[in-house]
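[audit] Reproducing an earlier prediction to check determinism. Same input, same settings, fresh worker. If the tokens differ from the archived copy the diff job will pick it up downstream; this log only records the rerun itself.
[audit] input (96 residues):
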Amino acid sequence: MAKKQRAKKRKQKIFVHPFGKEEIRWADMVRVKFAEEKFLITFAQVHPDRDEYTVMSEIILPPKVAQSLSTVLSGAVADYDKIYGQVSKPRKKKEK
């Protein structure tokens, strides 16, 4: 059986959310660190009035999944740009 035919016969998997809406977090900053066998992605909230961030969530991914995330996210941003216009980079604040 050809690959395309097998792919069509597979059922589409659904996402199950084992948590409530209170577990969904807002983040306006992301940091990525990596080592040979993992990527650590940290999502945080910025506090403009303080020199700190509040970490909302951290995720550890194997390199293959991090690469897949990069591909999917790049595609989503490209689609967003086509629909809503290009995302502008944040301006750096002038120091006083």
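[audit] rerun output stored. Observation attached for the diff report: The mean pLDDT is 85.
[audit] end
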